[in-house]
Structures are given as C-alpha cells and as structure tokens.
Design goal:
heterodimer; A: 178 residues; alpha/beta; two-stranded antiparallel ribbon; 7 strands; globular; B: 658 residues; alpha+beta
Chain lengths: 178, 658
Amino acid sequence: MGRWVYFVPLALFAALAGYFGVALFSGRDPRELPSALIDRPMPAFVLPGLGDGGGVTAAGLRGGVVVVNFFASWCAPCRVEHPLLLRLARQERVHVVGIAYKDRPEDSRRFLAELGDPYRGVGVDRDGRVGIDFGLYGVPETYVVDRAGHIRKRFVGALTPLVVERELLPLVRALERP
Amino acid sequence: MIIELGHFALALALFLALIQAVVPMAGASRRLVGWMEVGRSAALGQFALVALSFAALTHAYVTSDFSVANVVQNSHSAKPLLYKISGVWGNHEGSMLLWVLILALCGAAVAVFGDNLPRELRARVLSVQGMVASGFLLFILATSNPFERMIPTPGDGNGLNPVLQDPGLAFHPPFLYLGYVGSSVAFAFAVAALIEGRVDAAWARWVRPWALVSWCALTVGIALGSWWAYYTLGWGGWWFWDPVENASLLPWLSGTALIHSAIVVERRDTMKSWTILLALLTFSLALVGTFLVRSGVLSSVHAFAVDPERGVFILGLLVLAIGGSLVLYAVRAPALQGGGLFAPISREGALVFNNLLLATATATVLLGTLYPLFLDAVGGAKISVGPPFFNGTFLPLMVPLLMAMVVGPLLAWKRGDLLAALQRLWVAFGCALAVVLGGLWWAGFGPVLAVLGLGLAAWIAAGVLSEWGERVRLFRVPLRDSWRRAAGLPRAAYGMSAAHFGMAVMVAGIAGQAFEQERIESLRAGDRIALAGYELVLREVRRVPGPNFIADEAEVEVRRGGVVVDVMRPQRRLFTVQGQTTSLTAIRTGLAADLYLALGEGDPASGWTIRAYHKPIVSWIWLGALVMALGGVVSLTDRRWRVGVAARRAAAVPAAAE
C-alpha cells in the first residue's frame, strides 16, 4: 500500500465539506429541482390497486388534471404533508392519485386508515419500478399532470401550505380552465 | 446577576481552554514539566467554570426567569419541575452548553484519572481536548449565547415542545451526549499518538477504557431514544431510520469497531493506523451528527436563512477538527506500521472481519442519511429513502457479522483452528436449528426471515454460553474446578460475554416484531376488541386536567379468559400553550409480550379510534441494549485497566517507515 492510501479519508472528508460549503454559500433558490420529464408525457405504468377500486394506469388518468403523489407508510415527511393532501382532495376537489412506493399494501392501508384517504385511486408500486420511471429521489414527491397526460410540475419532498397555495393550486386551476 | 455570572464564567472557561490547548502542547515538545502540568489544572478549572455557567442557566429555568430569551422561548411557568430542568437542554443553545459541559467533564476526568499516563501523552491529550473545547466555547459565545436577555420581559414563556415533555426524553440527551463527547477522549488520544508518532500496546490499553465508557453511554442513549419513540409516538414503531437516529447510530457503529480493533493493537501490536483512524472517525461522526442534524442546520433550510453565520461557523469547526486531524493522519500514519501479517483464521483475523463489516455498515448508513440531507441542502426538500434502503443494505451486512461474533472468541490468537472452533459450537448450532425448525412448524413459511432471525439469536446466545463453558471446561473437569476457573476468569471476558449475549437478546426482540398483532377500531363505551387471547373493553372516556394540558383518558379493561387482569388508561393530551396534541400510550409491559394501546380522535356519539397492538418480546430490544451496556461496564472493572501498565517498552515500535 502506498502512502496515498492515508490521504483517502482526508479526500473523502474534503469532498463532503466542499459539498456542505457549496450548499451553504450558493444562495440559489433551493426549492427548484427540475425534472427531465417536465412537459413530456408521464411514463406509462399499470399498477395494481390498493383497495377494491381496481388498478391505476397512466392511460386511465388521461383526460383530467391529476395530482400524482408518491408516498409510503414508513416515510415521516409523508405524514407531515398528509393533511394538505386531504384538504386538496376534500375542500379543493382536486383529483389526487396516490402511488404507494416500496410499501407493503397492508402498511399503506393502515397508514390511510389512520390518517384519512385523500386519493381517488392508489397504485401499489411494490418494487419501486414506477418510481424509477418518474426519476424519483425519494418520498414524498408530487407531480401535476395535465389533461393530455403531460407532466407540468414536480414537487420534491413534503408539500407545505405555502407551496400548495402559491404554486400547486394556481397551476391546477389554470390547467383545469377549458 | 446570576445570568451575567454564568455568561462571564463561560467566557473565562474559553480563556482557560485556550491555555489548556496551547501550553501543555508546547511543554510536551520542549519537555517542560511545569508547562505540561498546566493542562491538568486548566482542565479542572475549565470544568468548574462551565459547570457554574450551566448551573446559572438551570437556575434561570427553575425560577422561570423570563428576562432570559432562552427561557422565554423554551419554558413556561406551569411546567413541572423535571421539564423545567430538562428544558435547559431541550433547545439549541442549552444543548450546546450541555455538550461543552460534558466535554469539560471528560477533560477533568483525564486530568484526575490520568495518573498512570506518561506525562507527555497526558499533556498532549489534554491539549487536544482544550482545542476542541475552545472551538465549541467560542461557537456558543459568538453565535448561540443562551444567556441573552429579553427586554421588555414577557409575562410568561412559550413552553417546551410537548413531545419533549417526557421522562424518557429528559434523560436521553445527557446519555447520548456523554456517548458523543466521550469519544472526544479517544480522538484526543489518537491525535496525541499521531503527534508523538508512537502507538503501542500500552497506548491501546489506555485508550480502550475511554472508548468503552463512551460506547456504553451511547448504547444506553440510543436505547432510551428508541424506547421513547416506541411509547410516545403511538405507532408502535421503535426505529425509523430517521436522520436524527442515524446520527447516533453512526458513531456507535464505528465506536463498536474501535473497541474491537483496540484489542488487536493491545494484544498483537498491529492494526495501528486503522485503530487511530477509527478513533478519529468516531468523534468526527459524532460531530457531524450533532451539528448537522441535531442543531437543525442541514435539516432545515431556514436555519441557514435565519442565521447563516451559525452554519459557516459550524462548517469551519468541522473542517478544523476533522480536516485537521485527517491531515495529521495522512502525514503521520504511514509511519505507524508495526506488528506483522497474520493468518486470516485467527482471533485477530476475526476482529478484522468484524471491523470490515462494521465499517461498511457505517458507510452505508452514512450514505443513506446524507443523501436526503444533500438533497435538503440543495433542494430544500424533505424526503426519506427510509427502511427499504436500510433494510436492503444494512441488514445483509449484520447477518454475517452476528454469525461470526460467536466464532471469533473461540479462535486462538495468531493461528486459529476454524474446524475446532466450529466443533465446539455444535450445541449452539443444534439450538439454532431447533429454534428455526420449531419456528417454521409453529408459524409456517410466512415470516421465514423472522424465524431465521430467532435462530440467529439462539445461535449467538448458545454460542456465548458454550464459549464460557469452554473456558471453564464445564463437564470436562469436576464442577468444583469449573467453579474455580469461572471465578478466575477476567472481568473483561465476562464483559464480552454479557455484551454479546445482550446482542442475542436484542436480535430476538427485533425478529419477534414480525409476530405482532394489531387492531385499529372505533369503539363506543362498552364495545370490545379481541386481540391475541385478550379481550379489551372500553369502559369510558373521561376528560382529565393536567398541569399544562387537558387530556382525554380512555379506561380500557383488559380481560383474559373472562377475568379482568388489568385496566389500561391511554391518553390524548392537548397542550394548551402550544395548541398541540400528543398521545400518551398505555403499555402493559412484560417479558413475553407488550400490550400497547393508543387513543385516537373521537367523541361519545361516533366512538373513539383505539389502536391496540400485541407485541411479543418487544421489550427484549431495549433489555438487550441494556445488557450490552452492562457488559461494557463489567469489562471496565477489569483488573488490567487499574494495574499500572508495566513500564512502556521503549523499543516497542520505533516506527520505521516502509
């Protein structure tokens, strides 16, 4: 082993510290995480459903403005954003579809029984394939899909009241206009 | 006045810490005895001053002095005394003060108990501790002053986050911090050894007790945190792979590797630079954990926006402490080669295996934890890669580690005989096989992984007992001779057996969770649920007042075979100051199983949601952790730590470069 081996820990730490530094000093708007799929058709998928309502397919969602939300029972931020989804579905009458990402169906069911079910349909993405097609970073993630089935906006991480009021709802309303 | 005194004491402590950082180090390189001895008095003085400062803040909390901003933000006059005290460390500034207090305590401990250390080494260790303390005292004074006044003085405070008002959480941070900060001693020893350019068996023998103390505290701290999550969050879960939890698991994993690799240094005089690296790494991970996760710097973008100064300061400290020590490592470690090659099948070979797996596991958890944090730093998003990632990567690493854990102690140093070791484990193998077959017969192939987990636990437990039987030559020699041998075994051997046995208990507890049963139902008074042979009857739901909350309390009768065995009272508390609700679960704890009730929302007309769980052997998880920590404590009482190490062999390792 050469001497350079002993520099490996230092190099790794330097990379880490550099990353923190960039994050600290960049000062750019941190909420933008563009998706390669913006204004492109939503990836095709056919998923079994969680309840008795039958499965969820990309083709079946076409024709209306849909909010697609990836969630999981094991995901703490999902619990945080859940009341917002309930409000979207119940008070704002937005069509919200859920995709349970890498979650056991019984756990997802329990999650929804405990917190309320905002979804008009839930697809079970047991192995996370559909998540990969969407380019998911993790859960929760939320996509706004227009009538033609094109993705118009992506929200990474838990939705916040501000994001819903200022961005998500106005976009959905604009897309819904004939 | 007391507050200003506390502030002033903290500033004086910084002054002493700076002296402690500079003078003994200079003294050690110039061999000036007087200068070196300054380290001890400075460390003691620094501890006294920080303790005074901490006492001043605690006094402000206990007397509800709302002229102090920190008290206003985190306390309330109606809070019970225990939570007024625990409120001191339930916030950023106060928890930093506790952190520094424990750091000063460690420094004082080295000064007091370090009599058997060579003077130069002790001076350098204290100096490194002084450097770390200076950095953090400066951080508190410059950016996180807990003694700031608030004028005009408000009438009452905002209260402590209700979730934190819990006895488990009152004691969790002190233990956790003792674990985190305790690792600074091993860190200081490692840096001192790098400066001296000498690592030998004596060094390992001095550093290992410190590493063990911090490991024990961290084990207890993590277990307390997990237990708290279990009984307070009301979902019945006990580990969520949350960044905050992972931040404590990371130094635990590398610290576990450290206490094992230090044995190799002590016995075989090899694996030196690796052990040094682990000592540096453990404290570094503790630092990264505390500051990037606990202080909320990376987990919320707002922390930067509100106070970018704090973020820059923390990053600067991390770069100085971690980066500085790693530079020293890169330059000096290559000269630490010693010992020699050894056979893969040997005690030290098994310990290398242990270290490889633990290091990989550490890297895995670090990756899974930092990845969302990175995203958070650049993306401001809260996401979770969650259990699927960790279960898929961490658990497969743990299985071979746990299986080998039994074999390692049966191998001899230098050259072991794997076949002979395995032959001695036939009883353990039989036990494991019996548990697996019995489990499959009883539970079927559904929870096959859990059954294998129980088999693994049986393998470890029976293996640990066989190893002890082997040492005392049980049934091989008359029982009286075995007894004499058992009494003569070193405490360290019992410590190891206990710690490994604790791991078996914990693995069983974790595997047992696959057999939990659950009912979530909406009940009206008089309704009942059947669960795992129990019958739960909701008698009524009452409103009960508390000191700073009002609660709905359900009274649930627990019947078994028609006989009332218990009455459980889960609560749902509304904290009036914050308008936040928390659930107080009711748990009937037993060695065999826990019965766990949580009360949800509801009203008399439509009924209340009640979640009921039957969790077999869940308490074994924390019991196992406790046994592990006790094993560490037993090991600490071993004679060999107390008897002075015979004069350090001067020619031990003059460290020839390759």
